Amino acid sequence: MKPLLRHSIDGICTEVAVLEPSTSVSSSIESKSRYAAFSKTQRRWIVVLVALAAFIPPLSVFIYMPIIDTLAEELDVSIEHIDITITSYLLVQGLIPALLSNLSDQLGRRVVYLVSLPIFCAACVGLALQESYPELLIFRMVQSAGTSGLLALGALVVTDVTPRDRRGRYMSGMLIGVNLGPVVAPVAGGFMADTVGWHQCFWLLLAFGSSDAYACVIPSWFWDFH
């Protein structure tokens, strides 16, 4: 019910309805002011950072495929045992994103990035140094836990910082990293396995993960949207 303003003129009492701003108008103004906090340059750099992070999960999956036979031979296990490491990796990757999305709503996107990427980096070090099948299995699951939320987080970040009418353009920029991973990773994995050894594949993943984690730490003003 709209509030009424009562006043009297020459003994005649009149009532005038007081108009209040609608909820939709208020929320629209609030949304526009939130997006206005970011310049075009800031939005572009944020999308670059989340695209680099979104590049890591497919890179981690597909760089592993060319070295399966080599791992089975050097660790003295069957291909079926190596397949279990792939299944466990994908299982963890399917379970974790829902949890991380909720945590990012409560703690902020940047916090979840700064937890996920160091977990991924630690697992990469373990994988590069491991010499046994149990270590391979465990560290691949930990690695998956570190990467599994990066795609969902990237989409959430783009939604947070871009207006709806321009969101598709920025979202496509983020997806470049997602689509580039399956193209680059198998070639890189096969080449490195044949030349410098399969251990170097995980050192390469460490380089990408640590670089993106460092980028998340330094430009804090890019991330002040939560």
Automatic annotation (TrEMBL):
It is found in: Membrane. It comes from Colletotrichum spinosum. Residues 46-226 form the Major facilitator superfamily (MFS) profile domain. It comes from the Eukaryota. It is a multi-pass membrane protein. GO terms for molecular function: transmembrane transporter activity. Keywords: Membrane, Transmembrane, Transmembrane helix, Transport. The chain crosses the membrane at residues 45-67, 79-99, 111-130, 136-158, 170-191, 203-223. One of its GO terms (cellular component) is plasma membrane. This is Itaconate transport protein. Pfam families: MFS_1 (PF07690). One of its GO terms (biological process) is xenobiotic transport. InterPro entries: MFS, MFS_dom, MFS_trans_sf, Sugar_transporter_CS.
